[in-house]
Amino acid sequence: MRIRKAVFPVAGLGTRFLPATKASAKEILPVVDKPLVQYAVKEAIAAGAEEMVFITSHTKNSIMDHFDRDYELEAILEAKGKEDLLAAVRDVLPKGITCVYIRQPDQMGLGHAISCAFPAVGDQDFAVILADDLIAGGSQPCLAQMQRVYQSYGASVLAVQRVPWEETYKYGIVEVEPVGPGLSEIKSIVEKPDPKEAPSNLAVVGRYILTPRIFRLIDRTQPGAGGEIQLTDAIEALLKEQTVMAYEFEGKRYDCGSKLGYLQANVEMGLQHPEIGASFRAYLRGLDPALLADPDGGNHTNG
């Protein structure tokens, strides 16, 4: 039992990062020296996936270009003897890995985006990765950890993490019955509940392993929160038919869909980067304290 297909919903407009995302996909924004979507694809490959299914829009050609071969660039790097850079460019999409691109005709929510993957996925179990949820650290990449749960239980698996109760309105929240350390069976799921009504503070984040039954259930799902077809609502229907597990993964999640989370990822992963980590750390230590002083008395937004 191995997940061979991974779906990447990447059709969103990335409005939080305008104007940077006016002509380029949000998922191409770099964290240190790799775009967000490349981290996501590497994670899928580490879990055994061989086919990457991108649900895109007409504004996302930069993703297709990134994973295409650039023979002219490779020839220049080879001629100049820049073997390290050549290897990095060729490793963007390793041999044996294929990409499929499917247009989402309308922005109708995450559930609808995943339903667009049906022609490529068919009757196979599959993974979903939201590229702007960057997860680093842990003994294995997040999806590889979830793969172990999937292999043990033969069931759908959702990645979850505990969030402050006052932030439950931002997430899909699950009610669970624990079955082991960091592992639970989901009893119910609700999209963006008021903190006073949330069944727990276990939030679903951007990693899923799903059975193909979800496609039929999405087709029956009516628009929900925000007037969109919510994956959460289809999963709630799936719970009535199949077991769905919640897994509290090892590692740290960076919400790169927000400006603050994106900057946090760049700083922390920059500090760990083998090429620049030491120099970057020295730079941060030498910053003028005035730059770190609070200029507005503590009025902040996450962007």
Task: Describe this structure as you would to a colleague.
This is UTP--glucose-1-phosphate uridylyltransferase. The structure is a single chain. It contains 12 helices and 13 strands. The chain has a single domain (5-287), classed as Spore Coat Polysaccharide Biosynthesis Protein SpsA, Chain A. The model has no long low-confidence stretch (mean pLDDT 92). A 5-stranded mixed barrel has the order 8-11-9-10-12. It has a two-stranded antiparallel sheet with strand order 2-3. Helix 8 packs across helix 9 and helix 10 crosses helix 11. The protein has helices at 36-46, 61-67, 71-79, 83-90, 110-115, 118-121, 142-153, 213-220, 231-239, 259-272, 277-285, 289-292; strands at residues 5-9, 30-31, 34-35, 51-56, 98-103, 126-129, 133-136, 156-162, 172-180, 183-191, 202-210, 244-248, 252-255. It is an alpha/beta fold. A hairpin with a 2-residue loop joins strand 2 and strand 3. 33% of the residues lie in helices and 24% in strands.
Structural class: alpha/beta
CATH class: Alpha Beta
Q: Calculate the terminal CA-CA distance, rounded to whole Å.
A: 41 Å
- For the record, the count of structural domains works out to 1
